[in-house]
Amino acid sequence: MKLLHIDSSALGANSVTRELSAAVAARWQDDLPGLAVEYRDLDADPIPHLTGRSLAKDDPAENDRSERILQQFLQADVIVIGAPMYNFGIPSTLKAWIDRIAVAGKTFRYTAEGPEGLAKGKKAIIVSGRGGLHSGQPSDFQETYLRHVLGFIGVTDVEFVRAEGVSYSPQHRADALAAAHASIPRPQRLAA
Questions:
Q1: Given the DSSP bridges, would you call strands 108-111 and 114-117 parallel, antiparallel or unpaired?
Q2: N or C, which end of the chain has less CB nearby within 10 Å?
Q3: Pair type for strands 78-84 and 123-129
Q4: Bridge-partner residues for 79, per DSSP?
Q5: Which positions, given as ranges, span the membrane (predicted)?
Q6: Which of 137, 142, 129, 141 lies closest to 168, judged by CA?
Q7: In whole angstroms, what separates CA 20 from the centre of its chain?
């Protein structure tokens, strides 16, 4: 079994999502001996945003990198994504990664009945960090987008670990982190 661990926060050691995504990956490693884990830090090693040149496949080095990113995703059974909320959405570095895994003919296709996700059988655990309170609010473009785009490519087993209101006060941050740590799913849930 393979777990792909993605971080996208620009906050380094001060990041709520980095702390929590590391805790998710560690719990899964502890519970599943032999679990292979690959790590990708989208802040330290950002993926270039798509351009016309990218889509035209004019750059062989970029094409190779995009294919490696896609294959890394396709080979993973579990994807842990540290996704902080930036301006009501996700970091642009995470969007650039999504643009490399949402590939027609590879992770989705269009049929006479509509789109079909081809990356089925995977579990995604999204670690969501938010300065304010946004769950269930019109301001939540982060979780709705991630759930939709993952479902579009066939990843429908999506779970969220949330830390909200972390910018309100040090106590809010501590309480949100404690609650989020307590909600980290264990691998047994994969059998469902």
A1: antiparallel
A2: C
A3: parallel
A4: 4, 124
A5: none
A6: 129
A7: 12
- Annotated binding-site residue? 85: yes
Condensed to tens digits (0 to 9), the pLDDT of residues 42-70 reads: 999 999 998 888 888 888 989 999 999 99
Is residue 23 packed enough to be buried (19+ CB in 10 Å), middle (13-18) or exposed (0-12)? middle
86 is known to lie in a ligand binding site: yes
Which residues on adjacent β-strands are paired with residue 161?
Answer: 127
DSSP SS3 for 186: coil
Is residue 84 within 8 Å of residue 11, measured between CB atoms? yes
Residue 189 lies in a domain: no
Length of the chain: 192
- Number of independent structural domains in the chain: 1
Quote the domain boundaries for residue 86: 2-24+32-133+148-166
Q: Tell me the C-alpha distance between 99 and 85, whole Å.
A: 18
Q: Is residue 141 part of a domain?
A: no
> Is position 128 annotated in a ligand binding site?
no
The three-state secondary structure class of 182 is: helix
**pTM assigned to the model:** 0.91
For 28, residues 6+ apart whose C-beta sits below 8 A from its C-beta are 3, 35, 37, 78, 80, 186, 187
